[in-house]
Q: What sequence folds into this?
């Protein structure tokens, strides 16, 4: 009985029921395709980021480039554009601009065909209304030529049949609107995850550059400290301490005098 009611409802709706059904099926196909693709993209991105994030945190950018080159996920496309700039320049601004450029290419791919679901939902509603209007026109035309005793019954039956298209149009449009909202939400989550990954990658690069700079600055400081200590030790051994007798300077003066005399004798020998 229930199956007969549904079939009877569809048949009494008229010719406009078939276009509405086709629109609903087209929207359903797009929804399933987009849902499968977006879920696959989200899972692949999550798996790739879990493997790539520790490598970026260690500062091993060459290994990260090698991992990205072997993967075709959207997160690899975005990070690949940014890491390609690290070999030439490591300024945060340039790498960030490269990633934003890649995001401008990725977002249209994620949103592809999703707006059609909302469009088809509106079309189903409008087709239902159009079917109802056409049904009412036919109903009033038929009532005009009918017997006065049958006009009320014929008009009510015709209006009831005409409303079937509006009902079926709304029954098709409401699920499509819900599907569109879910697809839009999933797409937004993927875009947010890509932006988060780009920020974390930039922070990892900044941390690596800071550590690298600190290591370079520590080496000259160590060398300077060693030279200063050596000079202090030599000065303490050669110069008199505070309160030392002048006679204590005689060995130092004699040493420098001998060195000076030896230098003069060497010069005379060379002149001779």
A:
């Amino acid at each position: 009985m229930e199956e007969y009611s549904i079939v009877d409802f569809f048949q009494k709706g008229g010719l406009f029921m078939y276009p509405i059904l086709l629109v609903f099926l087209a929207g359903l196909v797009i929804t399933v395709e987009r849902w499968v693709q977006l879920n696959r993209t989200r899972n692949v991105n999550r798996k790739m980021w879990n493997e790539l994030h520790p490598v970026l945190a260690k500062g091993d950018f060459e290994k990260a480039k090698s991992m990205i080159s072997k993967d075709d996920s959207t997160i690899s496309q975005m990070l690949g554009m940014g890491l390609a700039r690290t070999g030439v320049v490591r300024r945060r601004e340039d790498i960030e601009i490269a990633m934003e450029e890649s995001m401008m290419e990725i977002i249209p791919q994620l949103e592809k065909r999703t707006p059609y679901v909302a469009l088809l939902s509106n079309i189903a509603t409008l087709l239902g209304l159009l079917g109802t209007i056409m049904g009412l026109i036919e109903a009033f035309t038929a009532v005009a030529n009918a017997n006065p005793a049958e006009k009320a019954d014929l008009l009510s039956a015709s209006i009831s049949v005409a409303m079937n298209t509006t009902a079926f149009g709304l029954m098709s449009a409401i699920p499509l609107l819900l599907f569109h909202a879910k697809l839009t939400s999933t797409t937004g989550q993927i875009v947010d995850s890509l932006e988060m990954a780009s920020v974390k990658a930039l922070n990892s690069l900044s941390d690596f550059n800071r550590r690298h700079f600190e290591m370079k600055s520590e080496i000259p400081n160590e060398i300077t400290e060693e030279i200063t200590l050596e000079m202090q030790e030599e000065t303490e051994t050669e110069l008199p301490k505070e309160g030392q007798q002048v006679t204590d300077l005689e060995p130092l003066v004699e040493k420098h005098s001998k060195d000076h005399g030896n230098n003069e004798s060497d010069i005379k020998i060379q002149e001779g």
Remarks:
- Residues 241-253, 267-272 have pLDDT under 50 and may be disordered.
